[in-house]
Amino acid sequence: MRWCLALLLSCLLAAVNALSSSGSRLLVVLDESTEKSAYSTLWSDLEGRGYDVSFESPKSDKLSLFQHGERAYDHLLILPPKSKGLGPNLTPKSILEFLNKDGNILLALSGKASTSSAVSSLLLEIDIHLSNDRSSVVVDHFNYDTVSAAEKHDVLLLQRPGPLRPDVKAFFDGEGILALPRVAPQTLGSDSALVAPILRAPATAYAYNPKEEMPSAEDIEGTGSQLNVVSAMQARNSARFTVLGSVEALEDQWFSASVKAPGGKKTPTVNREFAKQLTAWTFKETGVLKVGKIEHHLATEGEVATEDLNPKIYRIKNETVFSIEVSEYAYDKWVPFEVPGEDELQLEFTMLSPFHRLALEPTGRTETSTVYRAQFVTPDQHGIFSFRVNYKRPFLTNIEEKHEVTVRHFAHDEYPRSWAITGGWVWIAGLWSVIAGFLAFVLVWLYSAPVADKVKKTQ
Amino acid sequence: MPAKRHAASTTATPVPVAPATLSSGPPTLKTNASAAAIAQHVWEQYLANTPQRTLLLDAFMAFLVLVGGLQFLYCVLAGNYPFNAFLSGFSAAVGQFVLTASLRMQTSDSGSGSSSKPSSKGKNARFVDEDNQEQVSGTSHERAFADYIFGSLILHFFCINFIN
C-alpha cells in the first residue's frame, strides 16, 4: 500500500517537474469553440511543453476555478469574450482568490471591441488601469505594419524588450520584430511595487478611440512609453498576473506573418517565440527562484563538522559564515541562479533593524544551484538576531528567508589576558612596581626597626 | 579658653622657640631670609629632625606618587584601552599611597609628638596623657604595621585579579 502511494507521489512529482514549476493544469477561457482554431499553434505549443489544456466558455455552468475549496487549475488564460463581462463564474473576486491561492493568470485584451467593466475593475484591483472608455487602441505613425495596416497604423511593430532596469534579468529579450495588432493600452499605477511593464509602446505611439469621429487632443490619456502593451503583476505570494494588450498577436496568422515597417524590409514576426516567453514566464517556467541548503557556522579552517553547523547560539564578535544555495527554474529544470550584473543578493543580520547588510558573493555552484556566501563578524551586541535574505525583484519570485539565532556576550574566561594586550603593559609594569616597591619597603622597614627605636629613645 | 589661646600662641611661633630646643641641625634663620633660604632651612630641618622610618615612608610615598603620575600620564597620552589595566595599575598606586599615609600618621605621631602633643591637644588631653603615656597614639607601631601589611595584601590581591 505504502510503496503504491510512494510510486504515485513520485509519478506526480515527475509530472510536475516535467514543465512548469507549479503545476500543469491550464484552463483557457474562450468565448466560442470556433475561436479556438484561430490559436491552434499556441495550443499545440503549450501542450508540447506539457500543459493539460482544457477549454471552457465563460458562460458555461461547469466552469469553476475551485473544487472543494482548492484550485481546480494551476494556470488560467483568459481571452477577451465577445459578450459583456466574463460571466457569473469568473467574477473579479473569484479571479483574485485564484491569484491568492498561487494560481497564475494570463489575461488577453483586444482593441477590437471595448473591454468589459468586470475586467476593468479586476485590473483596477491590481493597479493596472485601462483608458476611461475602455475601447482605445494604440496607434503609431512611425512603427506600423505597412502590409496589413497601411491606413489605420494600428498594427505596432516592436523590438522585443530588453531588461527593465540594468539590475533586472531580461526574460523577454531576443532578436526579431513583434507585430501587435490593435493593442488595448494599459497604464500602471505608480504606487505599487508589484506591477512592472513587460513591453512599453514606442515613444511615438498614442492611444485613441477609433469609434469617435473626431479624436481630440484633450482625450489622450497617455502617450508614448507611458502606455504599456504588456504589463505584469507579481503578487506577494509570487503568483503572476500578466496583461497582454493584443490577443490577436497570439493568433496563428500573426505567428507566421511577414511584416514590413515603413522604410524597412519585409521580415517574419517573432510572435511565436514571444508568446512562448510570455506564457512561460506567466505560468512559472522561468524566473522562479528556489532556496536550497542554508548553512551558517563559525569561520574555521578546513571542513566544518556537521554538529557545528547551524548552531543556535553565537557569541558577540564571532567570525561567522553564512551560505545559501539558490536555484532558478529554466523551462524544464533547475539551473544555478546568477544575480544580474548590477544587482546583488544581500544578507541581513538583524535584531529589529539590520546590524549588517552584506553582499552575498557567489563562491561555488552545484549542478542545480549557486552557492552564495558571506563572512562577517557578529556585532558587539547580544540578543536574538536573525539571518535574513530578502530578495524581491521584478519578474523573479520572492525569496524571504529568516533564521533566528541567539548572540550571547563574552563568558568571563573568554576575554584576552592582560599581557596579550600590548597597550596595557605600562599599567601592568606600574602595578608590579608598586608591589615590588611595597616588598622592598617592608624589608627595609623591618631592617631599620632597631635604629628607629634608638632614635625614639634618644628623643 | 585661655589654655587654648596659650596653645595657639606656642604653635604659631615655633621658629624663635625652636633653636633653643634643637639638639642638632642647621643654624637658625634670620627674620628676613629669602624664600630659597627658607626652603633650604625647612628641608634641612626635615632631614635632621625626622626619624629614619618616617623618612623611609616619605621616600616610598614619593615613589608611589611618581609611579601613579606616570601611569596617569600614559593614560592621557596613549588612551585608556585596556581600561581595567589602567584602573588597577593606577588604583594600586593610589591605594598603596593612602595606606602608607595612614601608616605614617600612626607611626610618626608618637615619634616626634612627645614634645608637641600636650600643647596640640587641649587641657583634657593633657590629663589623659598624664594618666597613661603608653596609649597616646591609640595603636602600637607593630599593630599599625600589621594592619598596613594586611590592607596592602588585600589591595594587591584585588588589583592583580582585576588586571586579569
Automatic annotation (TrEMBL), chain A:
Keyword line: Endoplasmic reticulum, Membrane, Signal, Transmembrane, Transmembrane helix
Pfam families xref list: OST48_MD, OST48_N
Annotated TM spans: 425-447
Record-annotated OST48 middle domain positions: 307-448
Family, similarity comment: Belongs to the DDOST 48 kDa subunit family.
Upper classification of the organism: Eukaryota, Fungi, Dikarya, Ascomycota, Pezizomycotina
Domain of life: Eukaryota
Membrane topology according to the record: Single-pass type I membrane protein
The protein's assembly and partners: Component of the oligosaccharyltransferase (OST) complex.
Domain OST48 N-terminal: 25-282
GO terms under cellular component: oligosaccharyltransferase complex
Protein name per its UniProtKB record: Dolichyl-diphosphooligosaccharide--protein glycosyltransferase subunit WBP1
Pathway: Protein modification; protein glycosylation
TrEMBL record, chain B:
InterPro entries linked: DAD/Ost2
GO biological process: protein N-linked glycosylation
Segments traversing the membrane: 55-79, 145-163
Residue segments, region Disordered: 1-24, 107-135
GO cellular component: oligosaccharyltransferase complex
Location of this chain's protein in the cell: Endoplasmic reticulum membrane
Pfam families (alphabetical): DAD (PF02109)
Membrane topology, as annotated: Multi-pass membrane protein
Family: Belongs to the DAD/OST2 family.
Function text: Subunit of the oligosaccharyl transferase (OST) complex that catalyzes the initial transfer of a defined glycan (Glc(3)Man(9)GlcNAc(2) in eukaryotes) from the lipid carrier dolichol-pyrophosphate to an asparagine residue within an Asn-X-Ser/Thr consensus motif in nascent polypeptide chains, the first step in protein N-glycosylation. N-glycosylation occurs cotranslationally and the complex associates with the Sec61 complex at the channel-forming translocon complex that mediates protein translocation across the endoplasmic reticulum (ER). All subunits are required for a maximal enzyme activity.
Protein name according to UniProt: Dolichyl-diphosphooligosaccharide--protein glycosyltransferase subunit OST2
